[in-house]
Amino acid sequence: MSNKSIEEVLNYPFNVGIILKKKKEIKRVLLQQADFIDKRIAILGGSTTAEIKNILELFFLKEGIKPSFYESEYNRYYEDIMFDNAKLQKFRPEIIYIHTSNVNIVNYPELSDSAEEIQTKINNEFSRYTSLWEKAAELYKCPIIQNNFELPATRTLGNLEFSDIHGKINYILRLNIEFAKYAQANNNFYINDIHYLSSWIGLEKWHNKTFWYSYKYALDYESIPILTHSIVKIICAIFGKTKKCLVLDLDNTLWGGEIGEEGIRGIQVGSETPSAEAYKVFQEYLKTLKNRGVLLAVCSKNQMENAIEGISHPDNVLKTEDFVAFYANWKPKYQNIVEIAKELNIGLDSMVFVDDDAVERELVKTQLPMVMTPDIGNDVARYVCNIEKNIFFEPILLSEDDIRRSQYYEENSKRDFHALTFQSYDEFLISLEMEAEIKAFSSIYLERIAQLTNKTNQFNLTTKRFTIAEMEAVLQDQKYITLYGRLRDKFGDNGIVSALIGMIQDDDVHIDVWLMSCRVIKRGLEYAMFDELVKACLRKSITTIKGYYIKTAKNVMVATHYREMGFQLLTQLESGDSEWQYTIPADYIPKANIKVVNE
Amino acid sequence: MNKEYVLEKVQDIFRDIFDDETLIIKQETSPNNIEDWDSLAQINLIVAIEKDFDIKFNLEEIQKLRNVGDTLALIFQKINKNENS
What we know:
The complex is a heterodimer of chains A (599) and B (85). Chain A folds into 3 domains: 3-238, Rossmann fold; 245-403, Rossmann fold (3-Layer(aba) Sandwich), CATH 3.40.50.1000; 422-596, 3-Layer(aba) Sandwich (Aminopeptidase), CATH 3.40.630.30.
């Protein structure tokens, strides 16, 4: 089997038949990868765990974790922790997984029991587990993962199993609530929710009594992949190996139809039709992910204007500000995904790409195998399920950070909060310890710079868009002065965020492009850019700089930019466009407060 | 379904489970001839056979399976029942 087909077998929807039958081969192939991290996992079972261990191993290897296992003897989960156990102590587990299930419940209520007697049974049952967990925490000081209880397959009391205090279902639910409370009160303790897993795939499928009587497995063989996948995802989350960014296509992914073809009135999102509603619900799901810290990015084959127009649909749940990166162009998507990863400074292996188009998915899968590319199908009603069941974004707990908005805004809000405690804005800027790198364009940055010309709308004096080829031509042509600006501060590297192109003509420099990403606005970078432009002009003995403002619907914020830079107004057109001029004085004093480091 | 076909398919299953592309099974092949054929492998074989032939073994049948011959006979009996019904 190839690595790719193994990926597919082990991704949702799992190919259970292949996993069970070919697990030796899958393991052999997975082991050929490099760079595993080793982890010691103790499996303490209340029923047989041999095959659970084997399948766990496959999912671990897929995630780049090479497990070594301690496996308790059959149904020795309690004794292994509570009594002296030199073998387990020598093993020094980094994770303890306690695989118990409803077959391990000791005392169900009897019909003759009073409410108090049932409460006592619950307390006894529960305290057996708490003593186990406490002892394990004390001895091994490692995270503990504990199954809750699944519902039984049959119901002697019928619906009363749920509603009557003597019912088994009622009893199990009460126990599960106790487990949840314990998890809320204790760090390093996590529930593996088999109550949900078994309900989701169906109790009929989850349970297999033949297997129980023959081999003492508490669940059917075919359910083992779902169980082990869930456990591995919890452990990945504990070790910080969750996905961070969801890269989304637009047409037929976020909304129905194609914005470029059908326009804002043609696309489906909202409540007008069944599919419009399904797209809206999908967006709501994404918004929830975003609200707990998952970064959302757009990668769409579209004109930028069309993409923005689509997002501006009044029934869209997601707005442009919900995305940390927005790429709409005609480049292969894998290139954009690489750019997004760079821009956000995250690894490609922490990205998930979602596109309804199987061809686009295939291309990304082939070019970037480390990016997860779930098959979301072509039915929008199933998108959420098809993404969610892969458990890309398992949170182990909801931290303040998760509840706050995504990272980029979080950093910005840190900066904002910061600003409050300073006497002056300048003082605040100084505290950011900013460092700018301002240099002539070089070929490695062309792509990023071309991209900036395409996606920057607000701080953009002329809104001229460039393809990479056009940018290449500018780079080669001696009549241009080019400058890019990169800004770092104590919160991180913002990357390349500004670009300026001056065209030399008749002893003057005409500023053809001047733009800056909105995430560094009001940081004074424009002054540093200007200082460097002045230096470059003086090197060529040029003293006159001409600036142009070409008005668009989005760049009003820079209408008076040149005045603020000290330019004189030459002409003001009715259209809102204007022309400006600056003469470099002999005693030019640099304007910027930012340290420029051009090593 | 004829006996050769069933044998061939079961042999493929054995090869997958034991990850051995050269494995040849015969009627009398049993846990005594295959080193890795422990109780866990036995379960894996049963699960794979059930799935690939779309049949189910009951509790008693599972306990009676001692070698390849027993298994083939039981599969054959089950699929014929399926085909006739």
